[in-house]
Amino acid sequence: MGRKWNNIKDKKAAKDQSTSRVNAKFGREIYMAARGGEPDPEANQALKMVLERAKTYSVPKHIIDRAIDKAKGGSDETFDEMRYEGFGPSGSMVIVDALTNNVNRTVSEVRAAFGKNGGNMGVSGSVSYMFDSTAVFGIEGKSEEEVLELLMDEDVEVRDVFEEDGTVIVYAEPDAFHAVQEAFGKNGISEFQVAELTMLPQNEVSLSEDEQAQFEKMIDAIDDLEDVQQVYHNVDLG
């Protein structure tokens, strides 16, 4: 479990270093969530979850407000949610989630990012069956025992609770995201290192030094694409 958490943590740290790109991606995701329902997060659970994730990445209020206002204004801009799956060196697997207003452009760009960096795209379902959709929270300032007791007192079921490097990590079913979040909120916990839905690999693979360098180059190329929102993989980068 620990290595999976390190990959999530390292991914967040890398994104934190590219603020403008993160803000742009969250702006698009917030707009889509607000447009798909009520622009009020208390009445739109999808929007509420995106805003909680945005909070952990310190997305500025004006970015959030602008995206919601755009949705309120009835903009006719539409995006399709797309998922692409593919392979890198030595059995490494990659899932790419995108929001796009031009599917042909996006699939072409994602395929090129794979192909130019030693990977290749697979068909739908060729990779995702080896991953589990998971709600993940990272909390500082509490012990594993305190968090576990808190969740038990609130009658919230989770997959796993463990502590690593001073952070307590909670894995739960995706549909338990709000229940976990509310349980923490009732107990005065509203700040998270990470609070998001992710795809955790059932098994991780280790690459040689050269393969890892090539793999990281491929992941960076994919993640840099404007339409790409999230990239998940099964490589231990520790």
UniProtKB/TrEMBL annotation:
One of its GO terms (cellular component) is cytosol. It is found in: Cytoplasm. It holds the Pfam family TACO1_YebC_N. InterPro entries: Integrase-like_N, TACO1_YebC-like_2nd/3rd_dom, TACO1_YebC_N, Transcrip_reg_TACO1-like, Transcrip_reg_TACO1-like_dom3, Transcrip_reg_TACO1_YeeN, YebC-like. One of its GO terms (biological process) is regulation of DNA-templated transcription. The keyword Transcription applies. Residues 80-235 form the TACO1/YebC-like second and third domain. Keywords: Cytoplasm, DNA-binding, Transcription, Transcription regulation. Signal peptide: none annotated. One of its GO terms (molecular function) is DNA binding. Residues 3-74 form the TACO1/YebC-like N-terminal domain. Residues 1-21 are annotated as: Disordered. Gene3D superfamilies: 1.10.10.200, 3.30.70.980. Belongs to the TACO1 family. YeeN subfamily. NCBIfam families: PRK00110.1, PRK12378.1, YebC/PmpR family DNA-binding transcriptional regulator. This is Probable transcriptional regulatory protein SAMN05428946_1680. It comes from Edaphobacillus lindanitolerans.
